[in-house]
From TrEMBL:
Domain Reverse transcriptase: residue ranges: 147-374
PANTHER family attached to this UniProt entry: REVERSE TRANSCRIPTASE DOMAIN-CONTAINING PROTEIN (PTHR47027), THAP-TYPE DOMAIN-CONTAINING PROTEIN (PTHR47027:SF30)
Source superkingdom: Eukaryota
The name this protein goes by in its record: Reverse transcriptase domain-containing protein
UniProt-listed Pfam families: RVT_1
InterPro entries according to UniProt: DNA/RNA_pol_sf, RT_dom
Length: 374
C-alpha cells in the first residue's frame, strides 16, 4: 500500500510540474519569445524529458520512439483539418496589374528585425545565417523573393510547418493534452513579412475601431477603458445594457480559406499580392517532431498558418468582415458612436440594449456567419 501511495504521489507531482511547465511556455510564447525558443531548442535536442509513451487512437499504450510518431501525426492531422460548413471555391486573383518588384531595402529591414533566438523550420536555416548576410547575400535573397513573387510559386519548405507538441495539463500520455507550436521556414517568414506590410497598408484604414488586436499602438487597455466608460454611461443615464463575452475556440485553425480570399478581394487585396498570399497555402503541409523523430508530411487544408507574420492581419480582416454583418442591430451608443462589439483578436464582447439583440449578434458571430459571407 505504501509503495502504491508513493507511486501515485510521484505521478501527481510530475503531472503538476508539467502543468506548470506548459503554463510557463504559453506565457513565454507571448511575452518572452527568446526564452521560449531556447526551451524549444532544448526540447528538439532531447534534453528535456518528453512523453516517450503515448496512447494510440484505440487506447493502446505505445512505448517505442518509432511507434509514437504515428498517433501524434493522426492527432494533429485531424486537429488541423477540422471544417465547419463549407467554404467558397478559391477565387482567381483577377487582373494581376503591375508587377512591382520587392526592394532590397524592404528585405534588409525585415531581416534586421529577426529574433536571434528563433528556431528554424523544415529547411533548418537559422536566423543567425540570415542576419549575418552582407549586401551580396541580401541581394541574392531579394532576387529569390522577386522570382517567387513574379511566378506565384514558393518552395515547399516555405509551406511546411514543423509541429512541436508542448504539454498543457493532464496525462502526459494523451495527445490532446498538448498544444502544437508550429515552426516555419525563416526565409519564408521574411517573405511573408514583406507581404504583410503591403497588405496592412491596404486594409488597416478599413478595419473598424472596435478591433484592437494585432494593430500597432492598440491593446487590451483600450478595450477595458471603453468598456468601463460604456458601463458608467449606462449607469449614469439609466440605460439598459446587455453584454456577452465570447472566446472563439481555435479560431485561427478554422478560418475557411476560400472565404478569406474573397474577403481580401473585398478589402482591395488582389492581383500579384493576393496570388502571393495564396501561394503560401497552395501545398500547405505539416509534420510532427517528437522525441527527435519526424512524422510523415500531412496536408493542412483549413485555417491560418501558426507563426506566420501574415496570419494576424489576415485574421483581423476576416473578423472585421464578420463584425460588419452586425450592422442594423440595436446596439449601444457611446460618445456619438454606435458600438456593437469590442474585439481583441478572437476575444469578443457583444454589447446591445436588449438580450434579444445580444442573441442576434451571437448568431451573426457564430459558424453560420461564414455562409452569410458567401
Amino acid at each position: 500500500m505504501a509503495k502504491r501511495g508513493a507511486a501515485v504521489a510521484v505521478a501527481e507531482a510530475k503531472s503538476r510540474a508539467w502543468e506548470k511547465f506548459g503554463e510557463a511556455m504559453e506565457k513565454d510564447y507571448r511575452s518572452a519569445p527568446k526564452r521560449f525558443w531556447q526551451t524549444v531548442r532544448r526540447l528538439r535536442r532531447g534534453r528535456q524529458e518528453l512523453a516517450h509513451t503515448v496512447y494510440s487512437g484505440d487506447w493502446e499504450l505505445l512505448m517505442s520512439t518509432g511507434a509514437i510518431v504515428g498517433p501524434w501525426k493522426e492527432y494533429f492531422e485531424e486537429l488541423l483539418n477540422r471544417t465547419y460548413g463549407h467554404s467558397k471555391e478559391e477565387p482567381e486573383p483577377g487582373d494581376l496589374g503591375m508587377d512591382l518588384p520587392i526592394s532590397g531595402a524592404e528585405v534588409a529591414e525585415v531581416v534586421k528585425q529577426l529574433h536571434s533566438g528563433g528556431a528554424p523550420g523544415a529547411d533548418e536555416i537559422h536566423p543567425g545565417y540570415l542576419k549575418a548576410m552582407d549586401v551580396v547575400g541580401l541581394s541574392w535573397l531579394t532576387c529569390l523573393f522577386n522570382i517567387v513573387w513574379s511566378s506565384g510559386a514558393v518552395p515547399l519548405e516555405w509551406q511546411t510547418g514543423v509541429v512541436v507538441p508542448i504539454f498543457k495539463k493532464g496525462d502526459l500520455r494523451v495527445c490532446s493534452n498538448y498544444r502544437g507550436i508550429t515552426l516555419l521556414s525563416l526565409p519564408g517568414k521574411v517573405y511573408s513579412k514583406v507581404l504583410e506590410r503591403e497588405i496592412r497598408s491596404i486594409v488597416e484604414s478599413q478595419i473598424q475601431e472596435e478591433q484592437c488586436g494585432f494593430r500597432p499602438g492598440r491593446g487590451t487597455v483600450d478595450q477595458l477603458y471603453t468598456l468601463a466608460r460604456v458601463v458608467e454611461g449606462a449607469w449614469e443615464f439609466a440605460q439598459p445594457i446587455h453584454m456577452c463575452f465570447v472566446d472563439l475556440e481555435k479560431a485561427y485553425d478554422r478560418v475557411p480559406r476560400g472565404t478569406l480570399w474573397a474577403t481580401l478581394q473585398e478589402y482591395g487585396v488582389g492581383g500579384f499580392l493576393l496570388r502571393a498570399i495564396q501561394s503560401l497555402y497552395q501545398r500547405s503541409v505539416s509534420l510532427v517532431l517528437i522525441a527527435g523523430s519526424k512524422s510523415d508530411l500531412f496536408p493542412v487544408r483549413v485555417g491560418l498558418r501558426q507563426g506566420c507574420p501574415l496570419s494576424p492581419v489576415l485574421f483581423i480582416t476576416f473578423m472585421d468582415r464578420i463584425s460588419r454583418c452586425g450592422r442594423g442591430v440595436e446596439c449601444v451608443e457611446f460618445g456619438g458612436r454606435i458600438i456593437s462589439s469590442l474585439v481583441f483578436a478572437d476575444d469578443v464582447v457583444h454589447l446591445a440594449s436588449s438580450s434579444s439583440d445580444v442573441q442576434l449578434l451571437l448568431g451573426i458571430g457564430s459558424r453560420p456567419s461564414v455562409k452569410r459571407l458567401e
